[in-house]
Amino acid sequence: MRFSQAMEQALYGPEGFFVRSHPAAHFRTSAQSPLFARAIARLIDLADVALGRPQQLDVVDVGAGEGMLLSHLRPLLPDRINLLPIEIGSEIPSFTGVLLATEWLDNVPLDLAEDGRYLWDGEPVSKEDADWMTRWWPSASSTVEIGRSRDLAWTAAVGKLRAGVALAVDYGHLSGTRPSTPTVTGFRDGREVSPSFDGSTDITAHVAMDAVAAATGLPSKLISQREALHWLGLSGSRPALDLAHRDPAGYVRALAEASEVASLTDPDGLGSHFWLIQTVGCAL
Ligand SMILES: C[S@@+](CC[C@H](N)C(=O)[O-])C[C@H]1O[C@@H](n2cnc3c(N)ncnc32)[C@H](O)[C@@H]1O
User: Fold this and answer.
1) Centre of ligand 1 from the C-alpha of residue 217, in Å
2) Whole-Å CA distances, 162 to 80, 99, 129, 151
3) Predicted structure pTM score
4) For ligand 1, is residue 171 a contact (CB within 6 Å)?
5) Position 242 in a domain
6) With contact defined as beta carbons under 8 Å apart, do 216 and 155 qualify?
7) How many A from CA of 84 to the centre of ligand 1?
8) Which of 83, 146, 232, 245 has the highest Cβ tally under 10 A?
9) How many domains does the chain divide into?
10) Residue 141 pLDDT > 80, yes or no?
């Protein structure tokens, strides 16, 4: 058995982690934050403008989990915007609007290789995977996390977008800064643990974001979450002290927001995640 098959079974098989547990209890993601949703709502508005504010606009969240991002988005968007969560086992329809994928691709099973052979079954890597490694991970001295499955998953999802904007948010790396040790890891009860394959832990690996971007051949912007959230108007600046006297409750609320933005934009944490923004048939 290859690593990707074991990961597939452990996450999505009958006893798989995502089948039997509530992921939000095991890890914190940006999508759980209402302020993150506020920034995404601004991006959706930009896409809506770029598409000429069509009568119907769909926002499709692939790998929606428990749907927290969409439920935070609902009150921020006009009723004509239709929100559609996609989870394992459901198909993305063909649509016009915005494709969202927050921390989806890191959970797409992948294979690992060393010295031209797959880890686990020791078979030589396929020509397609060898070509991917030559282009995207040429350093032979380390374990390669072959990101081709993520490229294919993203390309298939974006292929459903007739026109609009696609956004993938994830932790990852770029050519020239590939990790020298494997990033495959597990999460359980909010803590990082060794991955286990009995469905009791999440199993995830960082995403080769530049490879994912290139796979679709579409115009791309690849920036950090910190840059993206600043661009979309989340400043994180502390409220002025005089607000504390005029409106103490408002001051406390503003302070809590500033600390949430600080956490979403932390350069050593969520702020270092990548935002891959691609456009189909429109320009932002
Ligand atoms: C880490 S969770 C992210 C949940 C949410 N987007 C967030 O950011 O909090 C990854 C989700 O992707 C889902 N997923 C994995 N492969 C999928 C696929 N092929 N189609 C739809 N959902 C998938 C998993 O079931 C899981 O709920």
Assistant:
1) 24
2) 18, 11, 29, 19
3) 0.96
4) no
5) no
6) yes
7) 13
8) 146
9) 1
10) no
